Amino acid sequence: MRLNLIVSQWLRKTLVEAVADGKSGGNRPQSEFLDFLRFFRSWISNPLRVAGVAPSSDSLARLITSEISALDAPVLELGPGTGVFTRALLARGVPETELTLLEFGNDFLPGLNRRFPQARIVQMDAALIAEADLFADEAAGAVISGLPLLSMSPRKQEAILAGAFEVLRPGGAFYQFTYGPRCPVPRVILDRLGLDAERLGKTVRNLPPAAVYCITRR
Ligand SMILES: C[S@@+](CC[C@H](N)C(=O)[O-])C[C@H]1O[C@@H](n2cnc3c(N)ncnc32)[C@H](O)[C@@H]1O
Questions:
Q1: pLDDT score at 35
Q2: Taking CA 17 as the corner, what is the angle to CA 16 and CA 18, rounded to the nearest 5 degrees?
């Protein structure tokens, strides 16, 4: 019942905004409805990589970026998709020039380049971060991950976490959301890498409801 309400409210909001987009001559920076269609199409063509039928909500974006400030720059975002978390990072005061967006999917790259022209946008598998030398000048203060870790092998998860903590400075944190009931990174991987995971919070204002974990060095 509650889920029905969330879905219908979300559909109503996106349709109203799509109509407003049309009336304003398409001047709005982003149409959630078109993003939904783009996302849904991408999910149809690659359900394991996209692992969600719709972009994350603003509520989840606010939660996953709630501890970030300009002091965390530069910031690395993994799997930005249509850029919901990217917009929230900008709202938290991180300059666009200090953002590195690492996205594997072809479908999302033109939209990211158009919306965030000053960000560094890299098309790459996040499992290869360690080899990419992306933060040679200054280590990152935070990594925000929209990656579908639950649909990845443990080996790939470990490569992503290990690579992320190689580019994170001391005290830096890795933020990950999940639709599951617990941290999507298994304890054995956290132990091997010397990491701890803490639940930052949960939101039911997302389709489906999601939780955010903050992973740090012990
Ligand atoms: C669940 S979607 C999240 C998108 C967006 N962050 C959001 O919350 O709406 C997962 C995103 O991760 C990207 N992705 C999946 N596997 C990846 C990988 N190995 N390396 C980089 N990006 C990947 C997908 O293309 C997609 O954009």
A1: 76
A2: 90
C-alpha of residue 51 to centroid of ligand 1, in Å: 8
Residue 159 CB less than 6 A away from ligand 1: no
Question: With a 6 A CB cut-off, is 55 part of the ligand 1 pocket?
Answer: yes
pTM of the model: 0.86
- Residue 78's nearest CA partner among 159, 155, 137 is 159
Tokens describing residue 171:
């005290």
Ligand 1 centre to CA of 83 (Å) is: 10
pLDDT for position 10? 55
Percent of residues, the chain, with pLDDT higher than 90: 72
CA angle 153, 157, 161 (to 5 degrees): 170
CATH fold, domain 51-217, is: Rossmann fold (3.40.50)
- Sites in the chain below the pLDDT cut of 50: 16-29
Give residues with Cβ within 8 angstroms of 148, minimum separation 6: 48, 49, 50, 51, 52, 79
Which residue, 29, 77, 70, is CA-closest to 56? 77
Q: Cα separation of 64 and 216, whole Å?
A: 14
- 135, 114 contact by CB (below 8 A): no
